[in-house]
Design brief:
By secondary structure, this protein is of the alpha/beta class. Helices cover 39% and strands 17% of the residues. It has two domains: 17-189 and 238-267, 3-Layer(aba) Sandwich (Rossmann fold); 205-235 and 270-313 and 320-338, UDP-galactose 4-epimerase, domain 1 (Alpha-Beta Complex). The protein has helices spanning 7-11, 26-37, 69-79, 93-98, 100-120, 154-172, 205-213, 241-256, 274-285, 309-315, 324-339; strands at 17-21, 41-46, 60-63, 83-86, 125-131, 177-183, 185-187, 220-223, 235-236, 238-240, 262-266, 272-273, 291-294, 303-304. The structure holds uridine-5'-diphosphate-4-deoxy-4-fluoro-alpha-D-galactose (UFG).
């Protein structure tokens, strides 16, 4: 049963309302908290397939699936959001190669369901979680927003398709405006350890490394040491979750002030190799965990680094945590908290 209570709407009737799909997930939950702290009314819509009820620290939660169009429509009609933020998605590059249809359904078809519901309800502002995976193996680095989209895995392709839905809709429908944020490698946790990444089977490098340090995994595998990079391992642009959350708030302010549709990269503009991240994980945890170098993981581009001039210029985004050690330290504090039980 939905847990949404209409009393919420009258609680602070002046505040702008934001519906957040996937608000119980890693990125969504940090943004929900940031929205709450900034005075927005928030309603999370999440099927809890990978998210956690406990991670929704502000506003109400409707437990619902984007496949459930009647519930989605009813939720939007009841809440009357000024804007929607769409995070709910499947997010693992490796899994997408083996289960492509899951990605096209969860990421593309469900985005379509949401867009239909949003437009039927007359909501005309949307912020979309896109990804650097839409670029594939980019021909130039850093990657600008104009770089050719050429995804090399179904995850990137499924997100590229949703971006296309948005672009075509905005073209056809004068009232509708969106911002698509192309995330590079989001990592770290809330600096106060209220939230962090909490998946049953985490696959992301930093989380795997720190859980290995804690003994939850016996060893960390490094996928590929023969890439055309300085140390042979993949390079990624790791961005702290709080800076990414701020990018969403900046995008929301922009759209609510009549900004027009735009696409922005979210990254710091420089990267670290897998080996550099592993070394920082050992330093921050103080634990010399076991690392095994293995074959490449399918679907991984060698290097992804964001050009971020556009988001700085257009949204005034100013990152505060461009520091790999800080990213690892906040993630480590969160892992320590999780290992002791959340409280
Ligand atoms: N890696 C390992 N061992 C692991 C996990 C990861 O060596 O146990 C390597 C990967 O092969 C890759 C790098 O660490 O080279 C980063 O991998 P992640 O799984 O942490 O992240 P991805 O780069 O695959 O993907 C992430 C997001 C995507 C986004 C992409 C953009 O999950 O949504 O960053 O850069 F598109």
């Amino acid at each position: 049963m939905p847990t949404h209570r209409s009393s919420l709407i009258t609680q602070n009737s002046c505040a702008r309302r934001v519906l957040v799909t996937g608000g119980a997930g890693y990125i969504g939950s940090h943004v929900v908290l940031a929205l709450g702290e900034a005075g927005y009314q928030v309603l999370t819509y999440d099927n809890l397939s990978t998210g956690n009820r406990d991670a929704v620290l502000h506003g109400e939660l409707v437990v619902g699936d984007l496949a459930d169009k009647p519930l989605l429509a009813q939720t939007i009609a009841d809440f009357q959001p000024d804007a929607v933020m769409h995070f709910a998605a499947s997010i693992e590059v490796g899994e997408s190669v083996n289960k492509p249809l899951k990605y096209y359904r969860n990421n593309s078809v469900h985005a379509l369901n949401l867009l239909e519901a949003v437009r039927e309800a007359g909501v005309n502002r949307l912020i979309f979680s896109s990804t650097a995976a839409v670029y594939g193996n980019p021909l130039e680095l850093p990657v600008t927003e104009d770089t050719l989209l050429a995804p090399i895995n179904p995850y990137g392709a499924s997100k590229m398709m949703s971006e296309r839905f948005l672009a075509d809709l905005a073209q056809a429908d004068e009232a509708f405006e969106y911002v698509a944020l192309r995330y590079f490698n989001v990592a770290g946790a809330d600096p106060q350890s209220r939230l962090g990444q909490d998946y049953a089977n985490p696959t992301h490098l930093i989380t795997r490394a720190l859980k290995t340090a804690l003994g939850i995994f016996p060893k960390l595998q490094v996928f590929g040491t023969d890439y055309p990079t300085a140390d042979g391992t993949c390079i990624r642009d790791y961005i702290h979750i709080s800076d990414l959350a701020q990018a969403h708030l900046d995008a929301l302010t922009y759209l609510l002030n009549d900004g027009t549709s735009q696409i922005f990269n979210c990254g710091y503009g420089h990267g670290f190799s897998v080996r550099e991240v592993v070394s920082m994980a050992r330093q921050v945890s103080g634990i010399d965990f076991i690392v095994e170098e293995t074959d490449r993981r399918e679907g991984d581009p060698a290097e992804l680094i964001a050009a971020n001039a556009q988001i700085r210029r257009e949204l005034g985004w100013q990152p505060q945590h461009d520091d790999l050690e800080f990213i690892l330290r906040t993630a480590w504090d969160w892992e320590l908290k999780l290992s002791k039980g959340r409280n």
